[in-house]
């Protein structure tokens, strides 16, 4: 029988501790596939956050470090500036870690035009710490800290990070993708691979926002979360490229 797919060898034998139906596992697999296909294992450093992916350093056979809350871009800045240009530095953060605790870090990294790649997982909630409201939580969405639904007059509107960071000169590439369907998963892989290539070419900050389902935090069955991304999240967070050298008149 012909083998048509194998688990990336860059992944260890450790089992993913993500909840069933969560999008983190899909994104982790995509990263591993790209690193293996591009033969980047020995040249990669991944900076992991505090959040659902806090144990992900155990999943990858690459150099990794875990940053304090929100500080992954600062750690990545030091690492990238001290490595040869052909090294790949990846920042992996969730919405609570990046948009709440680390907003200043990511914005100033973009202002400086730091030459690393950010993979930002947006599931519109604090996943690991109990399902609290995040800056990305949708209006009306119920969480453990907004039991009656998020209200704009109290908490403001959800933050559109891919659009926001695209307006900063030092950001070279910004795109929003999703992992709720096979087509979107393929698009996510293309976007992340493109971001890695831009970094290896010595360009500025590359930012990939990934809309991810969170069955536990949302209180939904996994299949329902796929529909929720399509019907509700895409209204607030449309997919697309917001900054790229290939897109004119941005």
Give the strand order of the largest sheet, numbering strands 1, 2, ... along the chain. Answer: 2-1-3-4-6-5-7
Unreliable stretches: none
User: Structurally, how many domains make up the residues?
Assistant: 1
Largest sheet: 7 strands, mixed
CATH superfamily membership:
Thiamin diphosphate (ThDP)-binding fold, Pyr/PP domains
User: Percent range for helical residues?
Assistant: 25-40%
The first-level CATH class name: Alpha Beta
User: What is the rounded Rg?
Assistant: 17 Å
Tally of helical segments: 9
What is the element string, with H for helices and E for strands?
HEEHEHHEHHEHEHHE
Secondary-structure arrangement, i.e. CATH architecture: 3-Layer(aba) Sandwich
Given helix and strand content, the structural type is alpha/beta
Amount of beta strand: 15-25%
What is the CATH fold-level name?
Rossmann fold
Give the termini distance in whole angstroms.
49 Å
Features:
9 helices; single chain; 250 residues; seven-stranded mixed sheet; alpha/beta; Rossmann fold
């Amino acid at each position: 029988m012909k083998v048509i797919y194998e688990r990336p060898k860059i992944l260890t034998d450790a089992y993913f501790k993500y909840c069933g139906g969560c999008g983190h596992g899909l994104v982790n697999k995509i990263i591993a596939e790209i690193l293996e296909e591009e033969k980047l294992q020995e040249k990669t450093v991944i900076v992991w956050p505090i959040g659902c992916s806090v144990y992900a350093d155990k999943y990858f056979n690459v150099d990794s470090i875990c940053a304090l809350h929100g500080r992954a871009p600062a750690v990545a800045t030091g690492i990238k500036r001290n490595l040869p240009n052909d090294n790949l530095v990846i920042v992996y953060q969730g919405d609570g870690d990046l948009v709440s605790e680390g907003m200043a870090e990511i914005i100033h990294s973009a202002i400086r035009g730091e030459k690393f790649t950010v993979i930002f997982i947006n599931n519109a909630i604090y996943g690991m710490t109990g399902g609290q409201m995040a800056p990305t939580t949708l209006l009306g969405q119920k969480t453990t800290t907004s039991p009656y639904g998020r209200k704009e007059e109290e908490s403001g509107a959800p933050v559109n990070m891919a659009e926001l960071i695209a307006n900063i000169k030092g950001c070279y590439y910004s795109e929003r993708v999703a992992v709720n369907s096979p087509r979107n998963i393929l698009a996510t892989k293309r976007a992340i691979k493109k971001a890695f290539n831009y970094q290896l070419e010595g360009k500025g900050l590359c930012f990939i926002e990934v809309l991810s389902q969170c069955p536990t935090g949302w209180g939904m069955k996994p299949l329902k979360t796929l529909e929720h991304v399509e019907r509700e999240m895409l209204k607030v967070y449309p997919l697309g490229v917001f900054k790229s050298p290939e897109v004119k008149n941005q």
